[in-house]
Amino acid sequence: MVSASDRKERMSMSGEERRKEILNYISGSKSPASGTALAQMCHVSRQVIVQDIALLRAEGYDILSTNRGYFLNAPRQVSRVFYVCHDDSRILEELNLIVDCGGNVQDVFVHHEVYGELRAGLAVDSRKKAQAFLKNIQGGKCSPLNNITYGYHYHTVTAESEEILDSIEEELREKNFLVRE
Predict the structure, then answer these.
(1) Which residue, among 82, 84, 88, 87, has the nearest Cα to 137 in the 3D structure?
(2) Cα-Cα-Cα-Cα dihedral sign, residues 58, 64, 69, 72
(3) Are 148 and 110 in contact (CB under 8 A)?
(4) Does residue 16 or residue 176 have the better pLDDT?
(5) Which of 71, 36, 39 is nearest to 56 (CA)?
Protein backbone atom coordinates (compact mmCIF):
# COMPACT_ATOMS: atom_id res chain seq x y z
CA MET A 1 0.00 0.00 0.00
CA VAL A 2 1.33 3.42 -0.97
CA SER A 3 1.15 6.01 1.80
CA ALA A 4 -0.29 9.47 1.24
CA SER A 5 3.15 11.08 1.58
CA ASP A 6 4.64 8.65 -1.00
CA ARG A 7 1.74 9.41 -3.35
CA LYS A 8 2.25 13.16 -2.95
CA GLU A 9 6.01 12.80 -3.53
CA ARG A 10 5.49 10.77 -6.72
CA MET A 11 2.92 13.28 -8.00
CA SER A 12 5.45 16.10 -7.67
CA MET A 13 8.45 14.29 -9.18
CA SER A 14 10.11 15.69 -12.29
CA GLY A 15 10.14 13.85 -15.61
CA GLU A 16 13.74 12.82 -15.06
CA GLU A 17 12.97 11.48 -11.59
CA ARG A 18 9.91 9.66 -12.94
CA ARG A 19 11.94 8.03 -15.73
CA LYS A 20 14.54 6.93 -13.18
CA GLU A 21 11.76 5.41 -11.06
CA ILE A 22 10.31 3.64 -14.12
CA LEU A 23 13.74 2.30 -15.05
CA ASN A 24 14.39 1.07 -11.52
CA TYR A 25 11.02 -0.65 -11.45
CA ILE A 26 11.27 -2.43 -14.81
CA SER A 27 14.91 -3.41 -14.30
CA GLY A 28 14.09 -4.98 -10.93
CA SER A 29 10.94 -6.73 -12.09
CA LYS A 30 10.95 -10.41 -13.03
CA SER A 31 7.91 -9.96 -15.28
CA PRO A 32 6.89 -7.23 -17.74
CA ALA A 33 5.45 -4.07 -16.15
CA SER A 34 2.23 -2.86 -17.72
CA GLY A 35 1.91 0.75 -18.79
CA THR A 36 -1.21 1.04 -16.65
CA ALA A 37 0.64 -0.17 -13.55
CA LEU A 38 3.51 2.24 -14.22
CA ALA A 39 1.05 5.10 -14.75
CA GLN A 40 -0.68 4.34 -11.44
CA MET A 41 2.65 4.03 -9.64
CA CYS A 42 3.80 7.43 -10.93
CA HIS A 43 0.37 9.12 -10.82
CA VAL A 44 0.45 10.11 -14.48
CA SER A 45 -1.44 9.06 -17.58
CA ARG A 46 -0.48 6.01 -19.60
CA GLN A 47 0.41 8.36 -22.48
CA VAL A 48 3.05 10.03 -20.27
CA ILE A 49 4.51 6.58 -19.59
CA VAL A 50 4.62 5.85 -23.33
CA GLN A 51 6.52 9.13 -23.86
CA ASP A 52 8.88 8.36 -20.95
CA ILE A 53 9.63 4.91 -22.40
CA ALA A 54 10.43 6.55 -25.77
CA LEU A 55 12.82 8.98 -24.04
CA LEU A 56 14.52 6.15 -22.12
CA ARG A 57 14.98 4.24 -25.38
CA ALA A 58 16.51 7.37 -26.96
CA GLU A 59 19.01 7.43 -24.05
CA GLY A 60 20.14 3.93 -25.02
CA TYR A 61 18.09 1.66 -22.77
CA ASP A 62 16.90 -1.49 -24.53
CA ILE A 63 13.29 -1.49 -23.33
CA LEU A 64 11.04 -3.99 -25.05
CA SER A 65 7.28 -3.72 -25.31
CA THR A 66 5.12 -6.81 -25.18
CA ASN A 67 1.36 -7.32 -24.94
CA ARG A 68 1.92 -7.83 -21.19
CA GLY A 69 4.05 -4.73 -20.61
CA TYR A 70 7.58 -3.33 -20.68
CA PHE A 71 10.85 -4.94 -19.65
CA LEU A 72 14.51 -4.05 -19.82
CA ASN A 73 16.24 -6.40 -22.25
CA ALA A 74 19.83 -5.69 -21.21
CA PRO A 75 21.69 -3.28 -18.99
CA ARG A 76 22.64 0.00 -20.62
CA GLN A 77 26.33 0.57 -21.19
CA VAL A 78 27.82 4.02 -20.71
CA SER A 79 31.38 4.96 -21.53
CA ARG A 80 34.01 7.50 -20.57
CA VAL A 81 37.55 8.18 -21.70
CA PHE A 82 40.15 8.48 -18.94
CA TYR A 83 43.48 10.24 -19.54
CA VAL A 84 46.08 8.51 -17.37
CA CYS A 85 49.82 8.19 -16.87
CA HIS A 86 51.96 5.53 -15.21
CA ASP A 87 55.00 3.36 -15.81
CA ASP A 88 54.92 -0.33 -16.76
CA SER A 89 55.08 -1.46 -13.14
CA ARG A 90 51.54 -0.14 -12.52
CA ILE A 91 49.71 -1.63 -15.53
CA LEU A 92 48.10 -4.46 -13.57
CA GLU A 93 47.20 -2.18 -10.67
CA GLU A 94 45.42 0.23 -13.04
CA LEU A 95 43.50 -2.48 -14.90
CA ASN A 96 42.50 -4.28 -11.68
CA LEU A 97 41.29 -1.02 -10.16
CA ILE A 98 39.00 -0.40 -13.14
CA VAL A 99 37.55 -3.92 -13.33
CA ASP A 100 37.16 -4.15 -9.54
CA CYS A 101 34.94 -1.05 -9.70
CA GLY A 102 32.79 -2.67 -12.42
CA GLY A 103 34.39 -1.23 -15.55
CA ASN A 104 35.39 -2.82 -18.84
CA VAL A 105 38.59 -1.41 -20.39
CA GLN A 106 37.68 -1.32 -24.07
CA ASP A 107 40.95 0.03 -25.45
CA VAL A 108 44.15 1.95 -24.95
CA PHE A 109 45.17 4.82 -27.19
CA VAL A 110 47.80 7.52 -27.41
CA HIS A 111 48.16 10.77 -29.32
CA HIS A 112 51.57 10.76 -30.96
CA GLU A 113 52.99 13.98 -32.40
CA VAL A 114 54.08 12.28 -35.63
CA TYR A 115 51.78 9.27 -36.07
CA GLY A 116 48.60 10.79 -34.68
CA GLU A 117 46.21 8.60 -32.73
CA LEU A 118 47.27 5.00 -32.21
CA ARG A 119 44.64 2.70 -30.70
CA ALA A 120 44.51 -0.94 -29.64
CA GLY A 121 41.48 -2.91 -28.42
CA LEU A 122 41.74 -4.54 -24.99
CA ALA A 123 38.29 -5.74 -23.78
CA VAL A 124 39.61 -6.28 -20.23
CA ASP A 125 36.65 -6.84 -17.89
CA SER A 126 38.15 -9.12 -15.23
CA ARG A 127 41.30 -9.64 -13.19
CA LYS A 128 41.94 -12.81 -15.20
CA LYS A 129 41.94 -10.90 -18.49
CA ALA A 130 44.09 -8.15 -16.94
CA GLN A 131 46.62 -10.78 -15.86
CA ALA A 132 46.59 -12.39 -19.32
CA PHE A 133 47.16 -8.98 -20.96
CA LEU A 134 50.12 -8.29 -18.67
CA LYS A 135 51.56 -11.75 -19.33
CA ASN A 136 51.46 -11.07 -23.09
CA ILE A 137 53.21 -7.73 -22.60
CA GLN A 138 55.85 -9.24 -20.33
CA GLY A 139 56.51 -12.00 -22.87
CA GLY A 140 59.03 -9.66 -24.45
CA LYS A 141 57.55 -9.65 -27.95
CA CYS A 142 56.19 -6.13 -27.58
CA SER A 143 56.00 -3.23 -25.20
CA PRO A 144 53.00 -1.24 -23.96
CA LEU A 145 51.65 1.38 -26.35
CA ASN A 146 51.99 4.09 -23.70
CA ASN A 147 55.79 3.73 -23.77
CA ILE A 148 55.96 5.86 -26.92
CA THR A 149 54.31 8.75 -25.04
CA TYR A 150 56.27 8.44 -21.78
CA GLY A 151 53.44 6.69 -19.96
CA TYR A 152 50.65 9.09 -21.01
CA HIS A 153 47.67 7.32 -22.56
CA TYR A 154 43.88 7.06 -22.68
CA HIS A 155 41.43 4.27 -21.93
CA THR A 156 37.83 4.03 -23.09
CA VAL A 157 35.97 2.37 -20.22
CA THR A 158 32.38 1.10 -20.31
CA ALA A 159 30.13 0.30 -17.37
CA GLU A 160 26.47 -0.19 -16.51
CA SER A 161 26.05 3.28 -14.99
CA GLU A 162 27.53 6.76 -14.70
CA GLU A 163 27.89 6.12 -10.96
CA ILE A 164 30.29 3.26 -11.68
CA LEU A 165 32.31 5.48 -14.01
CA ASP A 166 32.36 8.20 -11.34
CA SER A 167 33.68 5.64 -8.85
CA ILE A 168 36.39 4.55 -11.29
CA GLU A 169 37.38 8.17 -11.86
CA GLU A 170 37.58 8.81 -8.13
CA GLU A 171 39.74 5.71 -7.57
CA LEU A 172 42.04 6.59 -10.48
CA ARG A 173 42.46 10.09 -9.07
CA GLU A 174 43.08 8.78 -5.56
CA LYS A 175 45.78 6.38 -6.80
CA ASN A 176 47.43 9.14 -8.90
CA PHE A 177 46.69 7.63 -12.30
CA LEU A 178 44.57 10.48 -13.69
CA VAL A 179 46.23 13.31 -15.59
CA ARG A 180 44.89 16.78 -14.92
CA GLU A 181 44.29 18.44 -18.26
Answers:
(1) 88
(2) negative
(3) yes
(4) 176
(5) 71
